[in-house]
Amino acid sequence: MRKFKTESKKLLDLMINSIYTNREIFLRELISNASDAVDKLYFRSLVDETVSINRADLAITVAFDGNGRTVTVSDNGIGMSKDDLDKNLGTIAHSDSFEFKADQAKNTPGEEKGLDDMTDVDIIGQFGVGFYSAFMVGKKVQVVSKAYGSDEGWMWESDGVDGYDLKPAQRETHGTDVIVYLKDNTDDESYDTFATEMGLKNLIKRYSNYVRYPIQMEVTKTRQIEAEEEGETPHWENYTEVETVNSMIPIWKRKGAEVSQEEYDEFYKTDFHDYEAPARTFSVHAEGALTYDALMFVPAHAAYDYYTRDFKKGLALYSANVLIMDKCEELLPDYFSFVRGVVDSADLTLNISRETLQHNSQLRAIARRLEKKIKADLVAYRTDDREGYEKFFENFGRNMKYGIYSSYGAAKGAVADLLLFYSAQQQKLVTLDEYLEAAPEGQNAIYYAVGSSLEHLAKMPIVTTVLAKGHDVLLCPDEVDEFCFMAMMDYNETPLKNVSSEDLGLTTEEEKKEAEEATEKNAGLFDAMTDALAGKVEKVVVSTRVSDAPAVLTCEGPVSLQMAATMKAQMGDAAEGMPPIPVVLEMNPKHVVFEVLQKAQAAGDTDKVASYASILYDQAMLVEGLPIDDPVAFAQKVADLMK
């Protein structure tokens, strides 16, 4: 037995048990090596006239033996001599493919034969360790190879522990067979699926579907046998047939003019397991310092787990047509996490296991370009198909709003102009730009109201008062809306103002003066009401922003009653430590109820003042769409008024 070169046992153990985290990728690595071997022979045929190869004959074969528990990956590529086997497989982390790429980079063949075909030669291997992933599933591996132009075949064999054997072997043609003898099953691990037709086909489809050469397997099919005699029942029989399992040419590398939308739709539904065609399809083809192709889709509906913690964003990442990871999170910002698709680049600097990347700067560069493309397509979507865009926003708008909030407003430049809100005045969804375009001259803020539903918000006294003054109000029933607006603070330097918690600047100086005088005149009444509502309100004042309701609740400071309620619900028991929100009960001095309170105060009926103050507070809470502390007590007080 020959010993592995380098610190063999420790390094080999590292290769098998540490570098790779997913054992099923062994097939991806072996197929990638086979593809490289075929590429090398094809390249040689381009630059050496003595090598005659028909590219149509080049292929990779995957076979299995369920009884013998083996998996075999074969190719008819350039093959290896005895010395090649010793050097390439006996020296861990030696990459013949990497050397090949380096040599070609130094010695580009100029205008020689087949130069146009050189773009088709893209060696996958880099590190010389992918082969050893076979030992994750195999207790023994044999490699039978015959170099192109040689009459000798050789077999390399190892159990992946200390060393390997090299001995003569028979192989009819040039190429290589890698035979993996699967490990025995244990209580914790089963390897049987790797020696099944379905198991291997699924792995090929998942990881190697777009390898440029046909990956062929003998598959079992069923056909009907016609009855030999009249009246005899036809029966079915199984038969085997060699079938090409992979697609070879990725749809994202085909010219857009050559691909129909039906083909894009079918690819999306098949690869991303969706029952409905995507709402939008768009692609990016970039060349330069970093060359890559991207094909992206906007789903027609949200995934069942989209708004859960289990959802994982990301685009499928390929390198040289080989799947590196199902979902590369770095390629999508959170606010565009709904986008599905693929990115393929042979320029990525992969780490040694090809499961992650070494330099995130490359990903960041791609991600920035993709973000701009997504944004541009969504703008076009909104412009070209407003009805479709509104449906899209119904599915994914909440996530874009949350993206602004979770980024503390940093994302507003990217997505704020994509947001839609319901206009109380126009009675339809509008963008912030559309809101401002319709605003009267001199309006210097965007007004919004938050609550439980559009119907409820449209009837809120403060909203109807603002509308009566000729200003529109954005109705925001989604609990994330207020958090989003608070993070934004403004839109294109126009302040965003909550009608329930901020000074809207709509009160005239005369109205302010009247309110101050009325508050001072009724100071005793308001003190009594404040005492009756101790712990609930900070103070009671005359309102300048309500015209038809007896009273409303507002807040001093940026936090509204709705936001406070949402925060308490999210924090649970921890909410007990939250500082109290300064709530203000604003009274309408022109409402008949105010006269009743004035009379009760003048008569010294403190119980009546306290009871009415409590009723008005609970009414205002209900108008805000918020629960009251004691519904039974409230109902009893209302019943007492009816006696």
Automatic annotation (TrEMBL):
Keywords carried by this UniProt record: ATP-binding, Chaperone, Cytoplasm, Nucleotide-binding, Stress response
Binding residues annotated for ATP, in chain numbering: 29, 33, 75, 80, 88, 126-131, 176, 354
Gene Ontology CC annotations of this record: cytoplasm
CDD domains recorded: HATPase_Hsp90-like
Location of region: C: 566-643
Cellular localisation: Cytoplasm
Family membership noted in the UniProt record: Belongs to the heat shock protein 90 family.
Subunit structure: Homodimer.
Name of the featured protein: Chaperone protein HtpG
